[in-house]
Amino acid sequence: MRRFVLTGTPGSGKTSILRGLDRLGYGVVEEAATSVIAEAQARGEDEPWTRASFVDDVVALQRRRQLDAPTGRFATVFDRSPLCTLALATFLGRPPSPALTAEVDRVTSDGTYEPRVFFIRNLGFCEPTAARRIDFAESLAFEDIHERTYRSYGFELVDIPAGGLDERVAAVAAAIG
Questions:
Q1: What are the distances in angstroms from CA 42 to CA 24, 30, 45, 62, 131?
Q2: Which of these, 122, 124, 156, 168, lies nearest to 142 by C-alpha position?
Q3: Which end of the chain is less congested by CB atoms within 10 angstroms, N or C?
Q4: DSSP 7
Q5: How far apart (Å, rounded) are the C-alpha atoms in residues 80 and 29?
Q6: Cα separation, 19 vs 41, whole angstroms
Q7: Cα-Cα-Cα-Cα dihedral sign, residues 142, 167, 65, 48
Q8: Beta pairing partners, 116
C-alpha cells in the first residue's frame, strides 16, 4: 500500500485536508505530536514540549501509528512523519535523540513513505491553540525547517498552496492518482 505524508507549518490545514481525504476513502493517520501534547495536558502538564522525553514520545507514537495504519481504497495519508519530528527537534533547538535518528533512518532506508511529500503551505496566519503556541512569524521559520529537512533527505515536495479546503483536498487526491 502506498503511504503519503502531509507536512507543513502548524495551522496550515493539514488536519482538515486529512479529514477530507478520509471522507474520500483514503486511509488516514493523525498527527502524533498533537496527541502527545493533548494527553500530557489532560494530566495537568501545561507545556509537555519542554520535557526532555517529548520528542521521543512523539517518535514512539508515530512508529506505532505507522505500523498499525489503516489501509484506504487508494492509499494511506499521514499527517506528519518522523522527518517532521526531526524538524521539530531542530526548531526546539534540540539535537536528534538516538530514537529519533533510528526512526528517521528506518523510514528513509525502508522507503516507508512515498518519495513525494505534500507540502501544505501556510494560510497567511497561525491560530494559537493549547497545543500550538507559536505566532505566525515562528510558524514561517518552522515551515522553512520542514522544507529543508525533507529536501535534505531527497524527498520531492508537492506544493499545495493556500486555498479553499475542497480545492486543496482535490489537489492532494489528484496528485496521488
A1: 32, 18, 7, 20, 11
A2: 122
A3: C
A4: E
A5: 9
A6: 24
A7: positive
A8: 156
What's the CA gap between 61 and 9, in Å, rounded? Answer: 20
pLDDT tens per residue across span 54-96 = 999 999 999 999 999 988 778 999 999 999 999 999 999 999 9
Task: Please list the alpha-helical segments (H only) found in the chain.
Answer: 14-23, 32-42, 54-67, 82-91, 98-109, 136-152, 165-176
C-alpha cell at 70: 489503516
Picking from 52, 55, 50, the residue whose alpha carbon sits closest to that of residue 80 is 55
The C-alpha cell at 60 is 514512539
Q: Cβ(76)–Cβ(26) under 8 Å? A: yes
Q: Which residues contact 107 (CB under 8 A, 6 or more apart)?
A: 66, 81, 82, 83, 113
Cα–Cα nearest to 176, from 113, 127, 94, 93: 113
pTM recorded for the entire structure:
0.93
